[in-house]
């Protein structure tokens, strides 16, 4: 990556790093990012990090320059067992840290569980299930020898319903996503595995995330400061506050500066304002510069090589030289090492780590330890079964996350039906097996996971047809099936018979951009069902007056043409349920689990109703496509409400087999004091050690040291001159001095100014089960902040409560200062506006049956 010579300062260059000068000039007219330097160093007094800091300081103080560089730099794609692995520190007994996908289980490993997706568990609106799922995934990673689990995800957030990776995260709402992220982080880290909040940030589409065939640079998400704080940053704040150990910066640019070298984002917002104390790693090959990314706040490069397997690195040798040379100040390298080791100790780790007992690149027992180089033949897979009894949790989470969208004539729960016709490819298996398509890159058979790196291999997959067959066999129900969407004659014969209940399984898939499925390059091309699912439903329901539809999907689909047919008696959204798919849906269909889940996104009547869309074609010539987030905070339900567009199923909507009533809202003001902006300044950066400037001290250790091809090392191949050793044509830049800086007003503890979590109001309401079945209810609290640019309502609280028939329960939620504030760009702080505010409580974002004014 060339630095432009047009600019004198590395500070500016870091923001404009681009492979060609024309680009920089073209972009002068467009969005840009302000520099923020120097890069903040760890705060020894940061709450929750004090002990970790002391341990990290002790360890890092013993490290040599080469050892520190090793810790920051991946050894290259497929050079070791994990999808990402940094160099080791053998002298001090630390093996290379293992970083492994994914947010729903251990990727590329055997004898692991395949969990429901993040978006699916978000629908449960159940904090405890979110935590338990995180913890179970953490345990499996831990037992395989993983140190950093690459999840959970809050980016994409869901600006576009078509967004390919929305399912990896939680909801198209920052508050719910924030809860999901924090609970998952806590669950993972309680097992001793470092969680990774990703992808930071505004990584809302797959198209052009890394540029493209005819496009020089990655797409730029151009987002204003208020929208950033109130929407996209919000859930990441909750992750920082929950103590997350690592962040992953994303592929895209933000205001035409790559997210992994955007100093305003990494130094400014994440490390200074939010006081994040852990480390930032690049997404795989999302690093675009050496010194610039280092001084902009990147702490670890993944997988270490410039392009997969090119044997070169922006760091490794280059980082060693840059520190010797003074280009990158020593404090910055020390801070990188401190942050990595502090996250390691914070999660309860000791230096002696268990062996990594699996290999990402082959399931063979014996093979090359250095897979790409085909060197180091030995045992690499121990086939350790780490699943415990997680299948029970998986079944429970998926059932409790299944949303009942429609239920007429008591179609559900099923009560010993005489005859079930199971229709649709989505009910059955993939003929190639559940893992038959690499990284789940196809949509064959039932959909239980999207595609891409956010996947795990299924240990087995119970299809809906499997589970229904077992259930009906036990009950003596007749069951016949057609699992070919295009065998209309057979389907017609079944569904036109007397006494039939038709269960139609349909889906819509999406995934990560490096795989294209049926012409969908990660992002969906449309919001209709796949495999002519809509036509199949219309066909079946024209003949069968008890047609029950089950949708497996990565987001909303347009159900307009059939959802209100009187013959479509019930609709369920089952998300991406994971390995227990069939048993979970049977639990819901037969009422073993009374549904209570809520849709974590809006179901619009048509695609245009969302107001945002993916950029599918270059819109800036050969330059980086420009995606202007002009809708501000108005995405998903906020947009529908703001524009007064009626959705088919609103955010937060979901039915039960029983009924609930809401009454008696009360609002009580708490005695929170005045909000004081943080003042003062940070201390001067410390350094932990010294180093020599004699290049010969950094040569490969000896002639006998095994040089593995393509491997990324911290050493110098040649010690004749720094420039030769670096091979970087633009070697030699300077960075900012580590002087004390003023503390941002909104900063303080990890997460921000602690007073933002002061409780301002407590809201209570009574919820009564007025039906005849025990069930869970999800009361939701929304606020109207009242300003002209505020969404009409925003989610600010929820609970999932089990209530016996005829009984009542008290819903209780607190509103913090943060919940009631807007981001004020001028003061760079949160402020509570003078606009009159209202709180609402109800069972969905549009059934706000209770309301009360807020007295501030
Ligand atoms: C992007 O540009 C907008 C508009 O100038 C600004 O409000 C925002 O703070 C910038 N964000 C970043 C990360 O540079
Ligand atoms: C750096 O890591 C590599 C790979 O783990 C290891 O072989 C080497 O000894 C390490 N170097 C130092 C200086 O610790
Ligand atoms: C790239 O540009 C070439 C030449 O204009 C064109 O033929 C090709 O279709 C373009 N590829 C894509 C993916 O747009
Ligand atoms: C140093 O980085 C440059 C890119 O900036 C790269 O071309 C060069 O190969 C790197 N050197 C090493 C030793 O990897
Ligand atoms: C860094 O190294 C380069 C290349 O060897 C050299 O030109 C430059 O003067 C060095 N800078 C410092 C500050 O030592
Ligand atoms: C939408 O995309 C799916 C998957 O590629 C495809 O099966 C379907 O035909 C498309 N729908 C329309 C209306 O083009
Ligand atoms: C729907 O029914 C028509 C006949 O009415 C048939 O031609 C078509 O193939 C059917 N499509 C599906 C997906 O069942
Ligand atoms: C509903 O199903 C019945 C058959 O049970 C059929 O006669 C009728 O036309 C269907 N109605 C609709 C609206 O499809
Ligand atoms: C469906 O049609 C059958 C006759 O085919 C009828 O007995 C039954 O009442 C109908 N059900 C509904 C819900 O309309
Ligand atoms: C680093 O400091 C130690 C302890 O003071 C000293 O023994 C060593 O010689 C120093 N090394 C260099 C390269 O300055
Ligand atoms: C370093 O030296 C090895 C062995 O001669 C060579 O294979 C490798 O390509 C060199 N690496 C770089 C980055 O020059």
Automatic annotation (TrEMBL):
Residues 777-845 form the Fibronectin type III-like domain. Belongs to the glycosyl hydrolase 3 family. Residues 1-19 form the signal peptide. Its EC number is 3.2.1.21. Pathway: Glycan metabolism; cellulose degradation. The lineage of its organism: Eukaryota, Fungi, Dikarya, Ascomycota, Pezizomycotina. Residues 723-753 are annotated as: Disordered. The keyword Ribosomal protein does not apply. Gene3D superfamilies: Glycoside hydrolase family 3 C-terminal domain (3.40.50.1700), Glycoside hydrolase, family 3, N-terminal domain (3.20.20.300), Immunoglobulins (2.60.40.10). It comes from Apiospora hydei. The keyword Hydrolase applies. Transmembrane segments: none annotated. This is beta-glucosidase. It catalyses: Hydrolysis of terminal, non-reducing beta-D-glucosyl residues with release of beta-D-glucose.
């Amino acid at each position: 990556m060339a630095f432009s010579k047009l600019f004198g300062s590395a500070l500016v260059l870091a923001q404009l790093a681009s492979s060609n000068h024309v680009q920089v000039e073209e972009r002068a007219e467009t969005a840009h990012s302000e520099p923020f330097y120097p890069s903040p160093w760890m705060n020894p007094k940061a709450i929750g990090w004090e002990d970790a800091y002391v341990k990290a300081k002790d360890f890092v103080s013993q490290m040599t320059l080469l050892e520190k560089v090793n810790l920051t730099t991946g050894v290259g794609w497929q050079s070791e067992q994990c999808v990402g692995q940094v160099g080791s520190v053998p002298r001090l007994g630390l093996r290379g840290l293992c970083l492994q996908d994914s947010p729903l289980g251990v990727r590329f490993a055997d004898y692991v569980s395949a969990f429901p997706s993040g978006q699916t568990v978000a629908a449960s609106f159940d904090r405890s299930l979110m935590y338990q799922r995180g913890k179970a995934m953490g345990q499996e990673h831990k037992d395989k020898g993983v140190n950093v689990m690459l999840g959970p995800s809050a980016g994409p957030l869901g600006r576009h319903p078509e967004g390919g990776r929305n399912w990896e995260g939680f909801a198209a709402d920052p508050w719910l996503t924030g809860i999901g992220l924090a609970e998952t982080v806590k669950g993972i880290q309680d097992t001793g595995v470092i969680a990774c909040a990703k992808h930071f940030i505004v990584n809302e589409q797959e198209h052009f995330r890394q540029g493209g065939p005819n496009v020089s640079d990655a797409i730029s998400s151009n987002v204003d400061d208020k929208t950033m704080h109130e929407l996209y940053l919000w859930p990441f704040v909750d992750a920082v506050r929950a103590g997350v150990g690592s962040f992953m910066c994303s592929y895209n640019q933000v205001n035409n500066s790559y997210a992994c070298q955007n100093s305003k984002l990494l130094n400014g917002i994440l490390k200074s304002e939010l006081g994040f104390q852990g480390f930032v790693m690049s997404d795989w090959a999302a690093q675009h510069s050496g010194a610039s990314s280092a001084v902009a706040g990147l702490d670890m490069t993944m997988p270490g090589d410039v392009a997969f397997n090119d044997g070169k690195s922006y760091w490794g040798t280059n980082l060693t030289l840059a520190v010797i040379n003074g280009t990158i100040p020593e404090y910055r390298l020390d801070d990188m090492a401190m942050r990595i080791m502090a996250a390691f100790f914070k999660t309860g780790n000791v230096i002696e780590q268990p062996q990594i007992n699996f290999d990402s690149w082959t399931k063979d027992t014996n093979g090359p330890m250095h897979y790409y180089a085909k060197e180091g033949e030995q045992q690499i897979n121990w086939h350790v079964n780490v699943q415990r009894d997680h299948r029970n949790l998986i079944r429970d989470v998926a059932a409790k996350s299944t949303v009942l969208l429609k239920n007429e004539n008591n179609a559900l729960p099923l009560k010993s039906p005489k005859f079930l016709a199971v229709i649709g490819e989505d009910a059955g298996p993939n003929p190639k097996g559940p893992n038959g398509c690499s990284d789940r890159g196809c949509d064959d058979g039932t959909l239980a996971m999207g595609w891409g790196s956010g996947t795990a291999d299924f240990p087995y997959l119970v299809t809906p047809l499997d589970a229904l067959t077992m259930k009906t066999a036990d009950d003596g129900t007749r069951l016949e099936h057609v699992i070919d969407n295009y065998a209309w004659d057979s389907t017609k014969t079944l569904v036109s018979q007397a006494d039939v209940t038709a269960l139609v399984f349909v889906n819509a898939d999406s995934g990560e951009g490096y795989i294209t499925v049926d012409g969908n390059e990660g992002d969906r091309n449309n919001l209709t069902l796949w495999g002519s699912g809509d036509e199949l439903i219309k066909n079946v329901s024209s003949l069968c007056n008890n047609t029950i539809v089950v949708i497996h999907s990565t987001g909303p689909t347009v159900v307009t043409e059939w959802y209100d047919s009187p013959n479509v008696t019930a609709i369920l959204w089952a998300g991406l349920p994971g390995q227990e798919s069939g048993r979970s849906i049977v639990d819901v269909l037969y009422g073993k689990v009374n549904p209570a889940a809520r849709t974590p996104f809006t179901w619009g009547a048509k695609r245009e109703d969302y107001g945002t869309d993916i950029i599918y074609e270059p819109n800036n010539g050969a330059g980086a496509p420009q995606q202007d987030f002009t809708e501000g905070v108005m995405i998903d339900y906020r947009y529908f409400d703001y524009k007064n567009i009626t959705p088919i199923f609103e955010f937060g909507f979901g039915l039960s087999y029983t009924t609930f009533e809401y009454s008696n809202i009360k609002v009580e003001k708490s005695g929170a004091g005045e909000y004081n902006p943080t003042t003062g300044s940070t201390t001067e950066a410390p350094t932990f050690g010294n180093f020599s400037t004699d290049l010969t001290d950094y040569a490969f250790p000896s002639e006998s040291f095994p040089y593995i091809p393509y491997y990324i090392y911290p050493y110098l191949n040649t010690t004749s001159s720094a420039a030769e050793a670096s091979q970087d044509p633009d070697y030699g830049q300077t960075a900012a001095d580590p002087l004390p800086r003023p503390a941002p007003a909104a900063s303080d503890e990890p997460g921000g100014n602690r007073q933002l979590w002061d409780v301002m109001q407590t809201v209570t309401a009574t919820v009564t089960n007025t039906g005849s079945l025990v069930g869970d209810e999800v009361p939701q609290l929304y606020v109207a902040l009242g300003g002209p640019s505020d969404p009409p309502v925003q989610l600010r609280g929820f609970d999932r409560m089990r209530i016996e028939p005829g009984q009542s329960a008290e819903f209780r939620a607190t509103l913090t200062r943060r919940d009631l504030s807007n981001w004020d760009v001028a003061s760079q702080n949160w402020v509570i506006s003078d606009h009159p505010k209202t709180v609402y409580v109800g069972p969905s974002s549009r059934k706000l049956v209770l309301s009360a004014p807020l007295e501030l």
